[in-house]
Amino acid sequence: MSTDNDSTTATNDDSLRTVTFAAVDTFLREDVNLLGGMVGRILAEQRSPDFLAEVEALRRAAISRRENDQPVTELAEALAGHELQKASDLGRAFSTYFQAVNLAERVHRIRRRRDHERAEQGAQPGGLLDVIGSLAGQGVEAAELADLLPRMRIEPVFTAHPTEAVRRVLLHKERQIVRSLVNDIDRNRTPAERRADHGRIRMALTASWQTVEAPAAKPSVADEFEHVGFYLSEVLYRVLPVFFEHFEAALREHYGDAVELPDVLGFGSWVGGDMDGNPNVGADTIADTLAGQRALVLAAYRRDIARLADLLSQSLSRVSVSDAVIGQVAAYRELLPEAAAELHPRHADMPYRNLLMLMAARLRATSHDEATGYPDAASFVADIECIHASLMANRGEHAGDFVLRRLLRRARCFGFHLASLDLRQDSSVHDAALAAVLQDPQWPERSAQERADRLHRMMAGDLVPADADASEAVRTLDVFRAVARLRPRYGERVFGPYIISMSRSAADALAVLALARVAGCVEPADAGADAAPVVPLDVAPLFETVADLEAADATMRALFSDPVYRAHLAARGNRQLVMLGYSDSAKDGGIIASRWALQQTQVALTALARESGVGIVFFHGRGGSASRGGSKTERAVIAAPRGSVDGVLRLTEQGEVIHRKYGTRAIALRNLEQATGAVMRATLRPRPLDTRAPRWRSMAAELARDSSAHYRALVHQHPDFSAYFRAVTPIDVIERLRIGSRPAKRIGSGGAESLRAIPWVFSWSQNRSGLTTWYGVGTALEQGLQRHGADPYAELARDWPFFATLIDDVEMVLAKSDLGIFECYSQLARDTPSATGTPDLHAQMFPAIAAEFRRTRGAVLAIKGEDELLNGDQRLQQSIRLRNPYVDPISLLQVDLLKRWRAGERKDEELLQVLMATVNGIAAGIQNTG
Questions:
Q1: Do 409 and 401 touch, CB atoms closer than 8 A?
Q2: What positions carry a catalytic annotation?
Q3: For residue 3, pLDDT beyond 80
Q4: Partners of 21 in the β-ladder
Q5: What residue spans of 716-873 are helical by DSSP H?
Q6: Cβ-Cβ contacts under 8 Å for 925 (sequence gap 6 or more)
Q7: Considering only CA atoms, which of 320, 301, 341 is closest in space to residue 399?
Q8: N or C: which end of the chain has fewer CB within 10 A?
Q9: For the chain, percent helix, then strand, then coil, each to nearest 5?
Q10: Which tens digit of pLDDT belongs to each residue from 421-454?
Q11: In Å, how far from its chain's centre is CA 307?
Q12: What are the tens digits of pLDDT across the range 760-781?
């Protein structure tokens, strides 16, 4: 190891390569070496020194192959033919190595945040202090902030689409490792303390090695809830008040006490409510999930109250306490006599402590649905506010109010529901239910206008359902009955929007309102007793394909002109949520066509909002991969069309993204700050209008057209593509994975059309091609460069955030792709039956795909004026380089195992288990996979 003022060079593999770390990353290098050394010792201990030596030889061969640009053949041969236990252990070994790198990098992000907080007045770029300071410097007045904050809303929504589902027991072990690394984050531990930390890390790593990564049984919806519940109750619950403290500190720094901070943050979930294509989700899972969420948050409140009861020990002989607190203690003694009898006589002069103990008892009664429980979360919040007011009136600001305010923030945000549960169903399911209720088998085939007219009559009472209890409709109607039953119990925020997949007309939204009314899911209107009852749900169309996105403006105009729906909107505050699908649109037309259609849809609907007087909120259905909208949130918000953000960000967090962004409290806090800061920037000081924009939009439209044509010619029109896809990806393994309750396929042929977007993208990331992100891009850019030259595209990448984000995302996937390894997968198609009679699908398909990869790479480098990918993001470039020697062997193991499993007609269950482990390992190593 050699050190100078600028960099530190890791020399463990000096004969193979030199990985240079910036001086600020010295501790990262040390953590990587520490964890890597521990993993090596664990492999020697748990398997054998010879096994470790073999792993090291393979790792060094993988490094040599990359550094010297060698063919993959030799490495592939070294990884072929191993007996199953050996293959499993090899895959697990490499996976453990790069998971250690992941943890070291996660801790280093925390370290970098601390470094920023110590320097530059604590303003980490993109954080709230930095953003609010920048906005103040741009002339944003306190009055502007005061106008924005009450309508501002940041709401991540966690979905049940795991492409990397880490077991909860392993999450706890990861947390132990992270905590031990953070203990010595600045190298201030004593030698004895450091030895203890290292012992804890070694213990957690060893126990993880001895734990099966995925359970044998496919997870139920309840298991998915447990997974998401971990992040909500153990990470975000703790982080939430810290977020507000940082926000308040930034506001005070630049605006004094002139701006009050309301509750701008909330969370949503699809787990237990996403019925689209999942027969395991319905009214029962909705009820069970909400009960589980309530149990988690009530337990968290009781833990906080127990700590507060120890802290708020103020005695009446030492300090005054408000009459309201004393009165509430007296009232609760009467309401909860058994709990009152348990109060210690020695604490009789400690009213705060006594009230808190009685509040805990009332929370217990709430959890058991007893009459003495809280009727709603607002009553619980009122008790906390009562104590807060008393403390502030009696010199208690520094005697415990800080901790109490943290509980108050949590109670206001999480209520008794923890997270709002979204509901989602395909429009065809609603049509089937209506066909049954109306006894009209032709209902789904009727025109949208005819269906809308009949739904109007139905909701006006002029068309009575022929069979309101039709068996074919019971499952759908039971969902609305559950909403009607559960809203009073959990509060008005318990349900998020009701999302309609494959929404194509105003009739699709009206269908939800009609079914809700048939099921009795209505509440009295605020307008008074004479007003018609209203459906207490926001209805959100989801526009998924490129064609649906292009038609969204016409669809929403028709909906807003519908008097029945407009009355519903008025009852819901004239606020319309529209969900935008990034996944299916990219699968449909490729990444450029998808991104451009999404951009244009937001422009059109933002204009419609201004015209109609309806506030349109966009809900972004993003995934983890670039082709599913997985850009960095901060950059995506800044790249959104002017006026489309307007203080609100609602987006899905899926798969490995949840673990990466919310697995650690400090990183979760950083992500929430970046998202909030981006929303403030995009709303208060959006990009100025640019006279070049019309030319830019014209060039983007050209790229969308040309890239989509090339993409669709392969993916949707080539007669052999479906067979090739199933041969060269592990889709047959992914369809058997036990990581989600939802089936991987819709009903169909098994090609791109029938496959859901997540396994579609997941499959192409597994074989290291990343095809779904870049295919078609190279052809379109090459044609554009021929038409316009390089300078106009360089201008787009420099000055237009939309295009810059797109090109950066494509570049990242290109850098993570490996054409040599993908060729090994492609060779699996040599003997695949062909629809066109081609004897060798690999020979037919691979050359054109490889050529498109090279075209895309060349065009991106030409536009950026670089000779290597990611030269502008050397931290990511280094991160990929660190992981490759561990991911490459797992990929080649997977190729060999796929060949053997398929040769045995996919009947070898033990082999399948090892294959599944390789899928999980590659996903964790590549990241941005699903």
A1: no
A2: 161, 587
A3: no
A4: 8
A5: 721-728, 731-734, 757-766, 771-774, 777-788, 790-799, 801-816, 819-826, 841-864
A6: 94, 95, 98, 883, 886, 887, 890
A7: 320
A8: N
A9: 65, 5, 30
A10: 999 999 999 999 999 999 999 999 999 999 999 9
A11: 32
A12: 888 999 999 999 999 999 999 9
